[in-house]
Amino acid sequence: MRAVIQRVRQAEVVIEGEVRGKIGSGLVVLVAAGEEDSLDDVEWLSGKIVRLRIFNDDSGLMNRSVHEIGGDLLVVSQFTLFASTRKGNRPSFIRSARPEVAIPLYEAFLVQLERDLGKSVERGEFGADMKVSFINDGPVTITIDTRARE
């Protein structure tokens, strides 16, 4: 799985003119499942995101997690994170998991995040045309790939 995590002051996702998910301070997580991903990747990625120390402590150092600050999560599926631009100028998405694999992994990821965070998680809708807006705080943007486990 691949994720782009952005520390935000606020964020929302709009689908067909309706706000479907909205958070205050926390993280926007753009996530994609790859063709080789499994529930092990779901569990590892969720734990990593919830414990990632990218919020400032009282000394101004990035030393606190979203869990520690009581922050929120907005999760949006984004298969384009597996884009390959190796050939030509039109991206290929062949490494993205097909919907029959990706949807159950996305849903399991949401459940695991809620378990790890201890509260509900705001979300987009898999496969929908979404408009995501946010105020990036910092800016702080982190990318994680479960294949690298770094």
Top-tier CATH class: Alpha Beta
Query: N- to C-terminal separation?
Result: 13 Å
Biggest sheet descriptor:
6 strands, mixed
Please, what is the CATH homologous superfamily?
D-tyrosyl-tRNA(Tyr) deacylase
Mean pLDDT rating = 95
CATH topology: D-tyrosyl-trna(Tyr) Deacylase, Chain: A
Number of helix segments? 3
Just name the CATH architecture.
3-Layer(bba) Sandwich
Q: How would you sum up the global shape?
A: globular
Low-confidence stretches: none
The radius of gyration over CA amounts to 15 Å
Secondary-structure element order, as H and E?
Answer: EEEHEEHEHEE
Q: What is the strand content?
A: 35-45%
Helix content: 10-25%
Task: Tell me the number of structural domains.
Answer: 1
Oligomeric assembly: single chain
Q: Provide the structure class.
A: alpha/beta
Number of strands: 8
Your description of this structure?
The chain is of the alpha/beta class and 150 residues long. The protein has a single domain, classed as D-tyrosyl-trna(Tyr) Deacylase, Chain: A (3-Layer(bba) Sandwich). Helices cover 24% and strands 37% of the residues. The protein is built from three helices and eight strands; from the N terminus they run βββαββαβαββ. The strands form two sheets. Strands 1, 2, 3, 6, 7 and 8 form a six-stranded mixed beta sheet that branches. The protein is globular.
What brief labels describe this structure?
two-stranded antiparallel sheet, D-tyrosyl-trna(Tyr) Deacylase, Chain: A, single chain, 6-stranded mixed beta sheet, alpha/beta, 150 residues
